């Protein structure tokens, strides 16, 4: 086995430089050491078992458990710096160690695919999509020459045993993650604009051409847009995340509601199967009970799976309030969302391509705040070469965020004070909702 440093590919030069710095300054004791780096992952079949191993800089403790709907194995870890292409975990059954291919041709892998990444500050997670009912044999970390190896071992189990274990897993996750206390919403003189970079951390979002990763594309765009809006000094601008961390869909909505946001813009990028590589351009979505078309329904279903992709147990939707006041507020909010969506497409097309059907609607969870006008901007398709070239370009990002900032400016300029989303109705609505959100 080669040493850990020698095993680092040349393209990890940034990490190499960082480590060199850490070694050079190693005399000082660091109170908060950098998280260990993981450099590779592989799947092996041994007998009936499927093993998923990560090569790490040093050992970390792990907490494995199972979840159902869909069937997943979760491994919770302290923070790990995964320097591994997320595409490694796609259809991992096909990618399993070539040396094992012959010996285990008859044994199907229990792993359909897997993801890894940051969950929250100080926490990381591995999410394994299972091909069938499985039991966790072990999750152990052992020193190997020059590095460490973390291995999850899965074995086939009965459906009943899996379900029982998955219920225990859900209970364990619920216990480990107490709801964060809502931070107080400081009053703001300026309208609050919440920009929501889609996905993050262990939830990578779509993976596209040229190693494009949706969570990075959305964060780069959102940060540039936030900088432009802040420079105008007209708004209080809040990002739902400003680094590579997982934020549940419901929490994104709660952030906007807690701050009494006047506008919520969720930023995403889609990817289609390779036979649809010609599909291109941006689409602006609003929320609706019924999807405008099959493609909108597909996108919403996919985007709504973000929590599940990050290894979160499916939670029941918060109970919607069904009264007339709620309905009125929601209808008014949706009208504002439509006005902004229409204007956003007009501004967007000045500097970029629109999809041939650029205004659509569907049941996006992240757009469901009843009192915050909300749109979801799919910037383009990571499966399209021209779109990826744009999304990778700082010049395009600069021009297009200027257009989105202009659309936001126009949205607020249109609103005379007396026609702003009925503040009184909103206050009354909030008064009817005890606790909950
Ligand atoms: Zn997305």
Walk me through what this model shows.
There is one protein chain. The protein is an alpha/beta fold and 437 residues long. It folds into 2 domains: 150 residues, Immunoglobulin-like (Sandwich); 234 residues, Aminopeptidase. Helices cover 34% and strands 26% of the residues. It has a 6-stranded mixed β-sheet with strand order 11-10-12-15-13-14, sandwiched between helices. It has a 5-stranded mixed β-sheet with strand order 5-1-2-9-8. Helix 5 links the parallel strand 10 and strand 11. The chain starts with 12 loop residues before the first helix and ends in a 5-residue tail after the last helix. The site of zinc ion has 6 residues, from loops.
Which key terms come to mind for this protein?
437 residues; five-stranded mixed sheet; Immunoglobulin-like; 15 strands; six-stranded mixed sheet; Aminopeptidase; binds zinc ion; 12 helices; globular; alpha/beta
């Amino acid at each position: 086995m080669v040493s850990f440093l020698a095993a680092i590919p040349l393209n990890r030069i940034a990490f190499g430089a960082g480590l060199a710095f850490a070694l050079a300054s190693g005399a000082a004791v660091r109170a908060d050491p950098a998280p260990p780096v993981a450099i590779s992952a592989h799947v092996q079949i041994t007998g009936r078992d499927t093993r998923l191993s990560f090569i790490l800089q040093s050992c970390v403790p792990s907490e494995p458990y199972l979840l159902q709907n869909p069937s997943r194995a979760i491994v919770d870890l302290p923070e790990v710096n995964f320097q591994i292409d997320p595409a490694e975990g796609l259809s991992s059954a096909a990618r399993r160690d070539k040396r094992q291919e012959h010996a285990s041709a008859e044994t199907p892998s229990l792993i359909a695919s897997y993801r890894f990444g940051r969950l929250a500050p100080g926490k990381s997670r591995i999410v394994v999509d299972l091909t069938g009912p499985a039991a966790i044999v072990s999750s152990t970390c052992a020193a190997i020459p020059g590095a460490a190896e973390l291995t999850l071992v899965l074995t086939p189990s009965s459906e009943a045993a899996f379900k029982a274990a998955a219920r225990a897993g859900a209970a364990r996750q619920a216990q480990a993650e107490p709801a964060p206390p809502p931070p107080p919403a400081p009053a703001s003189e300026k309208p609050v604009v919440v920009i929501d970079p889609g996905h993050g951390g262990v939830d990578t979002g779509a993976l596209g051409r040229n190693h494009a990763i949706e969570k990075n594309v959305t964060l780069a765009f959102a940060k540039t847009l936030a900088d432009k809006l802040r420079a105008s000094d007209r708004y209080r601008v809040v990002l739902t995340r400003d680094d590579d961390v997982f934020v549940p869909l419901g929490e994104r909505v709660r952030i906007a509601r807690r701050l009494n946001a006047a506008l919520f813009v969720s930023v995403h990028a889609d990817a289609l199967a390779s036979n649809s590589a010609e599909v291109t351009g941006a689409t602006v979505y609003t929320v609706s009970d019924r999807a405008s078309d099959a493609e909108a329904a597909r996108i919403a279903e996919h985007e709504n799976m973000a929590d599940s992709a990050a290894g979160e147990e499916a939670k029941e939707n918060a109970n919607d309030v069904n009264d007339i006041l709620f309905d009125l507020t929601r209808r008014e909010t949706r009208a504002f969302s439509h006005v902004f969506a229409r204007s956003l497409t007009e501004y967007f097309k000045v500097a970029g391509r629109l999809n041939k059907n650029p205004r659509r609607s569907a049941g996006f969870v992240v757009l469901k705040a009843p009192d915050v006008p909300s749109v979801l901007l799919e910037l383009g398709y990571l499966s399209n070469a021209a779109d990826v070239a744009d999304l990778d370009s700082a010049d395009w990002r600069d021009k297009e965020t200027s257009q989105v900032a202009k659309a936001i400016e126009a949205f607020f300029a249109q609103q005379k004070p007396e026609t702003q989303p009925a503040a009184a109705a909103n206050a009354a609505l909030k008064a009817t909702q005890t606790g909950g959100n």
